[in-house]
Design brief:
Layout lengths: L4 H25 L11 E6 L4 E3 L3 E9 L2 E2 L12 E8 L2 E6 L3 E5 L6 E10 L11 E7 L18 E6 L5 E2 L3 E8 L2 E2 L12 E8 L12 E5 L3 E4 L7 E10 L10 E8 L1
Parallel strand pairs: 2-9, 4-5, 11-18, 13-14
Antiparallel strand pairs: 1-3, 3-7, 5-6, 5-8, 8-9, 10-12, 12-16, 14-15, 14-17, 17-18
The structure holds copper (II) ion.
The site of copper (II) ion (CU) has 5 residues, from β14.
Length: 265
């Protein structure tokens, strides 16, 4: 059968609509930037909402199903069904958590009502807000902590990498060891308001510019002089490992970082 000019036009139009429709459907399926869909089902076992904390550390316990919590892959390529979760206090990130139990320090937290959010996240730290669970609690300390006050140092904060040595070969995992000067590392202040002279450091692989505040390639954070790099999600070859000083809010406002390039075997 021969197609007349009119018919060709109709067929072309139908094709165009079909292609456009498929493209639109595909676009709709893609989650918005930085919003992950992990499939995780999280339940907060402890604390229960309405809890009154009289101590200075809040112990937490969650159950996560349909999702494997494995921080060895944090900061590397996303893998469906694997990741970790974030705990936020009053919507400020405390830390990435690697197991069912954790603890949140009340250092520099004012007595009163607070919220705690538990948010499953991809390896690149993108939050899955649909799977988030929130509880509220009251902090009523029986022996309040003294607030950590700003500190002054004779010079600017700096960080250097002690180990591994440049151009060395690493395999299976290694400790990234740093030396920090004119800066005080504090785990208790993770996620709290910035305090001059205080913070912690992030260990990144290859870049510091991906994701929110550079955390897309963050392997983890440390308030000690060492961080264990698992290498589980890192392909063999040359890689740069970076230590970045961060303020308590995990922002790289301190202006100090160091890196080492090694061969991953
Ligand atoms: Cu941090």
């Amino acid at each position: 059968m021969r197609l007349g000019k009119g018919r060709i036009g109709v067929v072309a139009l139908v094709l165009l609509v079909a292609v456009y429709g498929a493209a639109a459907a595909f676009a709709k399926k893609k989650p918005p930037m930085m919003m992950a869909d992990t499939g995780a089902k999280l339940a907060v076992l402890s604390p229960k909402t309405g809890f009154t904390l009289t101590g200075n550390t809040l112990a937490t316990d969650v159950s996560i199903t349909h999702f494997k919590v494995d921080c060895r892959f944090a900061g590397t390529a996303n893998r469906m069904g694997i990741g970790h979760y974030h705990i936020e206090l009053d919507k400020s990130l405390i830390n990435m958590i690697c197991g069912p139990r954790s603890a949140v320090s009340m250092q520099n937290v004012l007595p009163g009502k607070h919220t705690l959010q538990f948010i499953p996240a991809e390896n690149d730290h993108a939050d899955d807000m649909k799977a988030m669970k929130q509880i509220s609690f009251t902090y009523k300390p029986s022996s309040p902590l003294a607030a950590v006050k700003p500190l002054s140092f004779p010079g600017k904060p700096s960080v250097s990498i002690v180990s591994p040595k440049p151009s060395s070969t690493v395999h299976g995992g290694f400790n990234l060891v740093v030396a920090v000067k004119n800066f005080k590392l504090s785990c208790a202040l993770y996620g709290k308001a910035p305090v001059k002279g205080y913070g912690h450091w992030h260990a990144n692989v290859d870049t510091t510019t991906m994701g929110m505040m550079g955390m897309g390639t963050m392997l983890g954070m440390s308030c000690a002089n060492s961080f264990h790099v698992s290498l589980a999600g890192i392909k063999p070859g040359q890689h740069k490992f970076i230590a970045i000083l961060e303020d308590n809010t995990h922002a790289p406002t301190i202006g100090a970082q160091a890196s080492v390039t090694v061969t991953v075997k």
